[in-house]
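Troubleshooting log. The previous structure file for this entry was overwritten by mistake, so regenerating from the original sequence record. Sequence copied from the archived sheet and checked twice against the printout by T.R.
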Amino acid sequence: MKLFGFKNIIALAAIVLAIGSADTFAQRRKPVLHRKPVAKKPIVPVEKVYTVAAGTMLRVRMNSSLSSKTAAIGQTFTATVTEPVYSSEGIVVIPTGSTVIGHVTALSAAAKGGKVGTIDVNFVSVNLPNGRKRTINGSLAELDTKTAKSDNEGTASGDKTNHRKVKFIGGAGVGGLVIGGAVGGGKGALIGGIIGGVGGYIAERQTKGAEAVVKSGTEFGVYLNQATSLPRFIEVTP
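Regenerated output below.
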């Protein structure tokens, strides 16, 4: 009995060892699960931009009417670019048909004594036909008299000029529009002097000066006070 019991113990131990070895072997053969590779974000190429220098003139046309009598400070208005704007490298970055956004910054309504109305404005952004938008720092400017004349159809007059602050001013005695120089010398000062004379003339005949009325279709310039950078303009195909 003792011998038989000892043999049984040995056999049981052998079975246990065999099972343990099988488990160990199975664990060693168990395939190793690999982590899924992390997807790399695609590298977006940096878009090349081109500089439009400070002092560049944008030729624009008013899209709606603006009056010193009814306008409000902070009011937004738009004008359409009538000629393409090129970068310093000769690349078109602002095409014809782009929209310039302007704000009314100050107003002076016409008053008794022949005081004409005035409208001060600035320009804060340009929207391109392809949906892009750029912030700008622009001021009202006069156009070259070779391509612009003063008449009752709402075309603004002025000579090619260096930057100076100008404003929309009522004048001509018939509600026409004149762009007058507010600071600086040269032709701008002369225009301002003429307007002053017109205002005095109106004072003699009327009790109230003319309002500044910027008609839809009025052409004028937007002078860039600071350089801006934009990519080459590419039309969006439907």
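The radius of gyration is 38 Å. Archived copy saved in two places this time.
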